[in-house]
Design a protein that fits this description.
The protein has 467 residues and is α+β, with helices and mostly antiparallel strands. It folds into three domains: 89 residues, GIY-YIG endonuclease, CATH 3.40.1440.10; 125 residues, no CATH class; 176 residues, Nucleotidyltransferase, domain 5, CATH 3.30.420. The chain is built from 15 helices and 17 strands. Strands 10, 11, 12, 13, 14, 15, 16 and 17 form an eight-stranded mixed beta sheet that branches. The chain has a four-stranded antiparallel beta sheet with strand order 1-4-2-3. The radius of gyration is 27 Å and the shape is elongated. The C terminus is likely disordered.
């Protein structure tokens, strides 16, 4: 799949020309590829980069080229390249191949100092597959590379180490899907009896190979061994982009089994072929997809009308305070991006002020501490648990630390009244559009859950210290 594939480049101002299909995209300035990514929908994914407030892409990478460059052949400040693929899994694999080939500078810089991911496969009778970060000597030709496996540094002889993959979560999902077609072993130590993975038909269960069974069934070990190794080989080929070769080999093997009248084996391979074709063409593993994007776009429009603002609303932070008579008071900050929680940006606060419980004073402390962190991206909207008093306190605190016009809402319990700045009367949440009603409640409930979880943890710790 990777041989001969090339990016087709367009000017960054022509993003609407990009196809609405799975594929890989690249951001380029001058002659250098700066970033490579994958997408379920190329047009919407690239568009999202430029819709983000204070976009690093727009401000840093894709500024207009210098006058000298403009006068030459590369007369573009920034260009977007794309390669269409048939499925999302193909996009993931092609992304890894192209990152390895071109080594784009910002694929590492913008991953929050995380390393690339690799798929490692051990050379054993019953091979093990596991995900690892970049090893010291990640090379197919180096048979004695060291890898972190199961929390211990092991020196394993490897068949193959595939990657680099940027998105660890998607890689795990991909392997999970492929495991349904080609079961494999992932345990560190061979168990004494089959585990749940065998029951779910996700592992061939090499642990069944015991000395007593080997005597009774001489070919049993060889059959399990062959199945384990063949499944791993097929996964390697797919992760290398050779899914057509895998399908051809399986069809050939099915015909041979059928001719030899080994119908059970032929039927099993037939099911594998159908499952693999379905996985390659229909697996939904990437987020955000087009449907998610469009839903948030509609919600955002309605939210803007309620708040009477033209500014973009993408990042929303919700705050809550939890305490019992002022003891072990905690605060929470949860963050939603385009209507979905992003736990990478959740923060918890142990309230430092003491004395009688004062929710407004506690809220002020949380917001002061939050806005002292200028390295944290600022929100477009803030939701506070409380009434008009909490809303006014939040606005005053934010003004002390920021000149940004951040909108603030407060949701009072009981009747679920929503207080909006510069509006004299509150709005009952039930009178708002359903998507806004759901969004506000989800924001409030998540902030409350996160705050009370931290509060309980502190109380439990305090109780253990006492006894």
């Amino acid at each position: 799949m990777s041989n001969g594939v090339k990016f087709k480049f367009i000017n960054k101002n022509n993003i609407s020309w990009l196809p609405k299909s799975p594929g890989v995209y690249a951001l380029k300035k001058g002659a250098k590829l700066l970033y490579i990514g994958k997408a379920t929908n190329l047009q919407e994914r690239v568009k999202n980069h430029f819709l983000q407030p204070r976009s690093m892409w727009e401000q840093t990478l894709l500024r207009p080229a210098s006058a000298k460059a403009t006068a030459g052949k590369q007369g573009y400040g920034g260009r977007v390249g794309f390669i269409k693929t048939n499925s999302e899994i193909e996009a993931l694999i092609l992304e890894a191949i192209l990152i390895k080939r071109y080594q784009p500078k910002y694929n590492v810089v913008w991953r929050d100092d995380k390393n690339y991911f690799f798929v490692a496969i051990t050379k054993e009778d019953f091979p093990k597959i596991f995900i690892t970060h970049q090893p010291p000597h990640h090379n197919e030709d180096n048979p004695h590379a060291k890898f972190w496996c199961g929390g211990k540094l092991t020196k394993s002889v490897l068949v193959w180490c595939g990657g680099p993959f940027v998105d660890g979560k998607t890689l795990k999902q991909t392997l999970k899907i492929l495991r349904k077609v080609f079961p494999y072993r992932n345990c560190n130590k061979m168990p004494k009896k089959p585990c749940l993975w065998y029951q779910l038909k996700r592992c061939p269960a090499p642990c069944l190979v015991r000395p007593d069974l080997s005597k009774e069934l001489p070919n049993f070990k060889n059959e399990i061994k062959k199945e384990c190794q063949e499944n791993v080989k097929n996964i390697i080929k797919i992760l290398k982009g050779k899914k057509n070769q895998v399908l051809r080999d399986l069809k050939k093997e099915m015909k041979i089994a059928s001719k030899l009248k080994i119908f059970e084996k032929a039927a099993k391979i037939r099911d594998q072929i159908k499952a693999l074709e379905k996985v390659i063409s229909h697996a939904r593993i990437f987020e955000p997809g087009l449907e998610t994007f469009k839903k948030w776009e509609e919600t955002e429009i309605r939210l803007k009308k309620i708040l009477k603002t033209r500014g973009k609303i993408s990042r929303i932070e919700a705050y809550d305070v939890s305490n019992i008579q002022g003891k072990q008071a905690t605060g929470s900050m949860t963050t939603f991006i385009n209507g979905h929680p992003d736990k990478n940006y959740y923060r918890k606060f142990k309230i430092e002020i003491s004395g009688k419980p004062d929710d407004i004073a506690m809220l002020k402390e949380i917001l002061k501490r939050r806005f002292k962190h200028k390295e944290w991206p600022y929100p477009d909207l803030i939701l506070i648990d409380g009434g008009i008093g909490q809303l006014n306190a939040a606005k005053l605190t934010i003004k002390q630390f920021s000149n940004l016009a951040i909108k603030v809402l407060a949701l009072a319990k009981g009747k679920n009244e929503l207080f909006i700045e510069r509006k004299k009367e509150s709005i009952l949440l039930k009178n708002l559009p359903r998507e806004i009603f759901n969004l506000i409640l989800q924001l409030r409930d998540e902030a409350h859950r996160f705050a009370i979880a931290y509060h309980r943890k502190l109380r439990e710790f305090d109780f253990k210290k006492t006894f």
